[in-house]
Every structure is written in structure tokens, then in C-alpha cells.
Task: structure prediction
Amino acid sequence: MSAEIAPRPVRTVPCFTSGVFALLAVVAVGGIFAAWRLISGLSAVTNLSDQYPWGLWIAVDVATGVALAAGGFTTGALAYVFGGERYRAVVRSALLTAMLGYTFVAVGLLVDLGRPYAIWHPMIYWQGNSVLFEVGICVMSYLAVLYLEFLPIVVERYKDGVALPRPFTALGRPIHSALTLTGRVMDRALPFLILAGVVLSCLHQSSLGTLMLIAPTKMHALWFTPISPLLFLMSAIAVGYPMVIVESMIASRSLKLEPEMDVLGPLARFIPVFLGLYLAMKVGDMSIRGTWRHLVGGSPVAPWFAAEMIGGVATPLFMLLFRRVRRSPPLLFAAALMVVLGVALNRLNVFLVAYSPPFAAKAYFPSPGEIAVTAALISTLVLAYRFTVMNFPVIAGRSRAS
Amino acid sequence: MNISRRRFLTVAAAAGGSIVAAPSRALSGARPPAREYGCLVDLALCDGCRKCELACNQANALPPPDRPFDDLSVVERPRRPTDRALTIVNKVAVAGREKPVYVKVQCMHCNDPACVSACIVGALTKEPNGAVVYDKSRCLGCRYCMVACPFQVPAYEYRDPLTPRVTKCNFCFERVSKEGGVPACAKMCPKEAIEFGPRADVLSLARERISNPGTRHRKHGPHVPAIYGEHEVGGTAWMYISPVPFAQLGFLALPAEAPPRLTEAIQHGIFNGFIFPAAAYSLLGLVMYMFRDRSDRKENGGGKGSGSR
Ligand code: SF4
Ligand code: SF4
Ligand code: SF4
Result:
């Protein structure tokens, strides 16, 4: 099996390519807007208002970011809890995606919060009735868990000695023994961390779905349901493997490696199961509460709902039932991407489209500054991923025979 | 602390009430020790003079208004409270009625406030005297309280890059905390359109005016038999009576259940005593242990260590 190939830093491509420069340009533009926001306030850069206190940054950077980082815990659970050793080949890249994803959730929040320097306040001012408090505490803890889970990879990278520049050479030995010790401790602690990661993820993924239930009168009935937390959890679980597939296939392509089809194909078998459960919950809820009525009669939000459910759930669910789709790289990629975009659209729908304040002067649409900052965050994430896999043993890929 | 104490008192008061079942009890002044205040806005009396806006501006040392308070043309365009005006008065023309109705808008000081339940750090609190107040030193500016408020009241100082605040009427908390204190707007109103007092008394007053309008009220026509705020989202400290059905004045039709009842039920259902998270952790641990046995055996058989770790 190809998993026999141990992960190692990818050295098949040069550090700087035209793609990297393009991403750096996006980062620079967004960085300027972010700096401007910190200097001149939210009103200078965003279209946020008293009617629409949450915009693109919360919907995409935070809500979608958390959902798409779910691959970390679902893959970890499969590979280490439910005995799917063969999937360990993609565990590290899924873990890296989650770690970077959550890091950028935090960075995105820093730009969005009115008082970013107070972001740590939930640690001392506990408010157990607040759904957001629970989300905040779980995300903080999970971020710590993710960094700890990544530690062994750092240890592995440097276990054969650290080459320090001249005046620090003497520190090499103590650092080496510290790393070895860390490695041993982490080997023992890893199972507990993985379990903690799974539980923390389930808690905050579902709580994200509870967030908007505090505003029943502002939410459109198509997305307002008391089982929203369950739907959020289920869709996060469902999007985990598609995200791993998308990320892994893009990475293989850009790093000139063979796509890991012998792992990704089997992984894709689980997706229809989860998507099916999600679809069943959604349809069941809608028929019990009769909310499907809002789909007929030309409601302006109905197309958003249809796009999310047909394009993001039903179609890929159907496609992935076929072995032929799961074995063909382009078709597998397309189906997985549809699930990813579908869940992203769902989060966008819940946090933006479904939200209609009663006294709104004009509808919210993200400003160029908001879009630029979000684009910069995503680009930085991609660059950080690239940098990490080129310097740490994350991917166990064979280089593509060209 | 405040909240659990208040809940206790409410429960105790409700229990006491159901045993005695005498409405006279509330009027006789035998109230729970923590008095929850309320305000009654009588829309039949308000004539849109904006004096309450002026009073509020002074009491809270707010920046000068865009248009001076004696410029009454401002009320023509519908407004909302902002970070520079915690209360505003809107003029509402009613079809088939000669005089328009003027509607004062401010925080309703809900009995079971969604903003308080939502706030991630407890920067918003429901005080025992009924006021919902804000502590800027805790706030991190997430604006979830604004998402939560069913009346769409809190505003935000989006222009301030460093120390923006959530702004809303605070029921003149400092003033009413003093003996004999009255909210600035209620005190200033030349038409006595805003009555302040213990919520229970204010509620009786509203019922009284509806069922038995005095001469002063009669010339504006009788009130519709409804008290806005008595039951909306669990009841609010500020309540309104009106000569015109509330729906025609742009008042929101809101359910009687307070929004936090759903979210807190879900939240506490999951976290009650950490039973669910602990059970999930243990169960997953068990599964992991079972599979670990299997994979160890397999790995030993294959003569290979835990390779990819
Ligand atoms: S109670 Fe005080 S803060 Fe509230 S509207 Fe009246 S004057 Fe303004
Ligand atoms: S009206 Fe809005 S801001 Fe005021 S107490 Fe109620 S929920 Fe809070
Ligand atoms: S903006 Fe401030 S007051 Fe409002 S919920 Fe967030 S922390 Fe609480």
C-alpha cells in the first residue's frame, strides 16, 4: 500500500511560482484593508450597520471556516478511533488544514471584533447561557488541541538534530533532548487529544447551528429550525471528507505529486452515507414543520435554498454512489467540490441570506474591503499550507511521473 | 448572580401569587423586595415634541444631534435609535385618522432579554430593578447582542476604531437607582405621556386607562384594548398603549415566548453537568480501545510498527 511511504517535506517544486506571487498580491491588498480597518474603524471598510451587525467576515471567515475545517476531526476519528488505519496517509494533511483553518478563524475574528484586544475576555468572564460563549471556549480549546496534535510532526522534522547557526550551536543538544522528550510524551497523549478533538468539534460545530436561533423573528423559516444544531453537526461531518479530497487533490496537482486515489476513493464511500443522513434530517424537518411551503410561490430566497440542497447535497450524493465516479480523479474532485461549496453556501445562507432585520433601510451586501480581507485570509491559508508541507513531513506522496 | 437571584424572585413571586390569587395584593404594595420598574408610553398623549430626545441627550451626555431638537421636521422620516440617539420619536400617519400618532422608540428592557442571554461575556445584564445595562469594560464587540435583540434596538459605534461601544437606552440606571429617581425622558415629557413606576403598577395603570379613559384621554379617542409589551417576548419593562392598533403603527408582532427559552434549553440540554460531553468522550475512548486491540494484533502479525505516526 502506498501508505508505506512515510510523509516527508515536499521538495518537488520551487518555493516561488507565479501562483505564489498572485496569492501574495491578494494578501497585500487585503492586508491594506485590514490595516485601514484597525486604524479607521469598522465603518471605514465594511458595510456593517446597526441592522446588519454580522456580515461576510462572520459568515465566511468564521462560520464557513469552522465547517470546512471539520476534515481534521472526522479524519482523525476515522483513522484513530474507528480503526481505519489506511486513512492515516491523509490524516496529517487534514490535521494541517484544520489547524490553519481554525487559526484563520481567530485571525478573521480579530479583524471583525470591535475590540480585538479583548478577544480573551470569555476566558475570565463566563456566561454559560450564551451560545457564542460555548462556541468561543470550544474553539479556543480545540485550537490548542490542534497545535498539540501537530507537535509530533515538528518533532519528527527536527529529531535528527537541529543545525543552529554558529553562536547557538551549543544549544543543539538540549533542544534535541527536549524534542525527544516531547515526542515521547506526545505519543502517550495523542489518543486523549484525538478524543478531545472529536468531542470539542461535535460541541462547537453543533452550537454554531444554535447561534442564529436566538433571533427567531429575523430568520427565514427555510433555515430556522430547532434542529439547526443537529443539521450543522451533520453537515460538518458530511463536508469533512470532501474537504480532505479537494485539498489533497489540489495539493497533489500544485506540488506535482500523484493524487492519493487509493485512499481518497475509499474515503469517498462514506460521503453519501453522511449526505444521505443530512438530507433525510432536512427533508423530515421540513415536512413535519411544513416549511417546504416557502419554496413555492417565488420567494426570493428559494433559489439560494435550492442551490444549496440540489447542487451541494443531492447531486454529489447521487454521483458518489457510483464507483466509477469515486475512481475517476476529475469526477471525484467535482463531486467533493460540490459538497464543499454546498456547505459553504449553507453557512452563507444561514448567517446572511436568511437574516432579515425588521427595520432595514437597505439590504446588506459585502463591501470591496470586506471581500478583499476575506480573499486575503484564504490566500494566506493556502500559502501557509504550502509552506508547511514543503518544510514538514505532512504529505506522503510520490512525485508524478511526467 | 443577578440573574439567578432575579429568576428566584420571579418564581417565588409567581408561586406566592398563585396561592393567594388576589389581584389586590399587587396593588397593596406587597411586592418582592427587588422592585422591577416599568414605563408606560401612552401614544394617545404624545404629540411628537422631541423633548424626550433632548432629555436623553443631556442625561447621557451624547453628541449634539444632526438637526436641533426643536426642529420637528425630523420626525417625518422614520428613524431608529443610533449610537448618538438612544431614543427617537417617529411620526406615523394613520389612514382614516386626522392626527398622526407619534411613537417613541428605545430599548424595551425585556423581562427575559435576548441580548443578555446572547452576550458572550455577560457585558449586558438584567438588573433587579428591571434595567438592562451594559458594561463596556467587558464587551469585546462581537455584536451578537445586536443580532439577538428582537426589537432591533442596540446600535454600535462603528466609527470608533479603538473603543467602540454598544449603545442603547439604559433606563437611566443611575437615576432610577436613587430614591425617587425618574428616567430623564419621563421626567421631561410635557404631556406626561411616559409614566414610570414599578412594572406591576404601571401595568395596572395601563389597564385602568384602557377600560376607563378620563376626559383628557377621551378627546383622542379610546385606547385599543391591548398593552404592547405585556406579553411580547416574555414581557418588557417598557409598555405602550395606543388609540390605534399596534400593527398599523409598525410595532412588530412578536411571539410570547422569549428567544432565550429555546437557545438556553438546547445549550443547557447539551451541557447539563457535562454528562453528554463526558459520555461521548468515554464512549469514543471505548471504541478506540477496541479497534486499537485489533490494529495492534494486525501490526504485530505484519511485523511493522505504527508506521505513519
Ligand atoms: S430612560 Fe434614560 S436612557 Fe432611556 S430613553 Fe429615557 S432618557 Fe434615554
Ligand atoms: S429591547 Fe433588545 S436591547 Fe433592549 S433589553 Fe430587549 S433584547 Fe435587550
Ligand atoms: S458586542 Fe459586547 S455587549 Fe454585545 S454580545 Fe458582544 S460582548 Fe456582549
